TrEMBL record:
Pfam family, one: Sigma70_r2
Annotated family: Belongs to the sigma-70 factor family. ECF subfamily.
Species this chain originates from: Streptomyces telluris
Protein known as: RNA polymerase sigma factor SigJ
Assembly: Interacts transiently with the RNA polymerase catalytic core formed by RpoA, RpoB, RpoC and RpoZ (2 alpha, 1 beta, 1 beta' and 1 omega subunit) to form the RNA polymerase holoenzyme that can initiate transcription.
Amino acid sequence: MLGSATDAEDVLQESYLRWSAVDPAAVEHPRAYLVRVVTRQSLNHLRAAKARREEYVGTWLPEPIRTAPEVSEDVILNESVSMAMMLVLETLNPAERAVFVLHDVFGYTHGEIAASIGKTEVTVRQIAHRARRHVHARRRRFEPDSEATREIVQRFLLATTTGEVQSLMDLLAPDVVQVSDGGGKVSAARHPITGRAEVARYVLGVARTSVSATTRIEQATYNGMPAARSLTDGELDWLLAFEIHDGRITGLYVMRNPDKMHRADAVHPLNRGERQPWKP
């Protein structure tokens, strides 16, 4: 819902403090209460984050989360944490984002969501319809991390390190888009780059200047997507998540902002668990 592991931890901390101040015996449905508290705290954070996004230098990307391979087997969860979907969610207002995530990702009913965000069920249905239409019009299809997509990533890395222009072009979709996030703190493209030739030219230029004898590039899984990470002298330089569809790379998401990579080595299983229904 937040696109930030840091903000998510803050919300959980605030929600825990509120829960610890409540007599559990007085709460008839603890899960409903906790969902309501976490949702409303998330909404507060989303509204505060809007101003920070407007001042951000360059393109903003959500924090990369190193996900366990089994996340890719959960189609709904896998897509919901992808870079592509997180960017689409950024275009929703806070209420639309909360309703979409709670209903379409976690399966809560409109009535349950209404109790969580303090609106009527009719209003929530309208918000859900509007958010779903918005998301479906902008969502990009991609294939989750798999043996096939990892092979494509391997071929991409080989082509970029050897400078094989045609091999690289063959892997890119005609309308491929590359988005970089340096946060104004390190060198990165300030605006998205679109088109096979333009992306290939940029990628090869970066590879020539950033890869050295002490650079190690390894494959990983981030946000449920196939990815690569570069380490120089053991320090993480950048992360690159791949959006792949029909055997071609349709999106490249490059994270270079050091403030967003401090959790990049921690693996998050993102297990939803079994949701027990509750009545508001």
